[in-house]
Amino acid sequence: MKELVEVITKALVDDPDSVVVTEREDKKTTILEVRVADSDMGKVIGKQGRIAKAIRSVVKAAAAKEDKKVVVDILDS
Length: 77
Description:
By secondary structure, the chain is an alpha+beta fold. It contains three helices and three strands, in the order αββααβ.
């Protein structure tokens, strides 16, 4: 899942080198924390959060295939 989020996020931003995705486990849930440059934050979130919602939907579908629960958090750098 981490690689999937990295690929999607790096394709969206102007500075792909600043994209950092960290993965941590919390009980039965995997939490993916995405950090991007401040200038790219709007590109990852999108208008009214549409891009962020789309990323979460793709990850949720991929996680459901593997019978896992994954949460994507987009954080300020």
